[in-house]
Amino acid sequence: MKKLNIGMIGYKFMGKAHSHAYRDLPLFFPKHIHPHMKVICGRSLESVADAASQFGWDEYTTDWREMLTRDDIDLIDINAPSDVHKEIAIEAAKAGKHVFCEKPLALTLADSREMLEAVEAAGVKHMVGFNYRFTPAVMLAKKLIDEGRLGDIYHFRAWFLQDWIIDPDFPLVWRLQKEIAGSGSHGDLGAHLIDMAHYLIGDITDVIGMSETFIKERPLPQEMTGLSATGSQSKEKGPVTVDDATLFLAKFANGAIGSFEATRFATGHRSTNSFEINGSKGSVIFDFERMNELQVYFVEDKEDVQGFRRVLATDAAHAYSDVWWPAGHTIGYEHTFIHSVVELMEAFQEERQPVPNFKDGVKCQQVLEAVEHSIEQKKWIKVTDL
Ligand SMILES: NC(=O)c1ccc[n+]([C@@H]2O[C@H](COP(=O)([O-])OP(=O)(O)OC[C@H]3O[C@@H](n4cnc5c(N)ncnc54)[C@H](O)[C@@H]3O)[C@@H](O)[C@H]2O)c1
């Protein structure tokens, strides 16, 4: 296989990020299978036509089902809001298409399990959009942990802080509606933290959480894209049906313990996606807004130079450094999507499933739902009971 024909649904925030990844991949990874940007789908003919021309897609359509009937589409890439992931992914799998789906995989654990069953029954490749795994700093943290250089892990402490809805008049976008988003900051931001914990530390066994919705109703929106919207002046209001902030504690199968905080009400924090890991031999600190850098501390350093130091993960020793720029020339948010697509293409070349895939999506959903149960029941919940 020299190229993979893509049919993509959604052309706004994630649609643009994925389109950019498909376009850039051949420039930097010429030996990989090339994604071919065949058809893009959206609900408005005029807008999807504009997106197709701007992003570089061959064709556009307003009917995703029509894409599934075409023999010249190999993979369906789902970048629409979370309420439509399940139907599209299952139908795509039934049509024999490989599926790349944005996170959270579904609105519920049951739905995500149905999606996993469908892709496994169809024998197609499946991937989920946990792109932060592919930042230089996180890839370095993973290497240090896998090589035992942090020793036994005691703590995983993670926080994803944003403030884009701090204004009570910010409109009621789809991310604030449970029937479309599944949950609020929990499924949006917390999902990334949970995936990071699974990736770096291992299985989460028990959780206990709390959540809050600070602003209970908001003006109805007019236009919305990603994290921006118009309609603040709308007189008509609707209820916010998701959490504004969710916090939880967790126990891991390997004995480590964790704390997680996801909020859209952290004034001044645009997108502080961070974690700290403490092990018997050392610690690391990650901050997405400085995604090329990892703070590291090693117990075995000589006493007179002990302390956290900043490692710029762009040297020859670091993942993907050979394809990007000379050492010290950093990469950005969009590269996390390029790396995701590189992993997807390598999975085809190596005849294996890409990672992270729907199994990771289901595992994440299991923890999301366990936290919700613990909040309702005000007690610790065993994740494996779900
Ligand atoms: N990996 C990440 O970091 C990340 C970041 C943002 C969003 N996401 C996820 O990506 C998905 C999309 O989010 P977004 O921010 O791009 O949303 P968005 O609102 O910016 O764009 C959604 C797109 O989906 C299209 N759409 C909406 N309903 C549709 C339907 N029924 N059928 C076909 N197309 C439809 C819209 O026209 C639009 O093009 C969500 O699941 C979200 O959770 C992931």
TrEMBL record:
* SUPFAM superfamilies linked: Glyceraldehyde-3-phosphate dehydrogenase-like, C-terminal domain, NAD(P)-binding Rossmann-fold domains
Q: Where is the GFO/IDH/MocA-like oxidoreductase domain?
A: 140-284
GO MF terms, alphabetically ordered: nucleotide binding; oxidoreductase activity
Record's keyword terms, sorted: Oxidoreductase
A Pfam family that this protein carries is: GFO_IDH_MocA
- Domain Gfo/Idh/MocA-like oxidoreductase N-terminal, first and last residues per copy: 4-130
Provide the protein name: Dehydrogenase
Please give the organism.
Alkalihalobacillus alcalophilus ATCC 27647 = CGMCC 1.3604
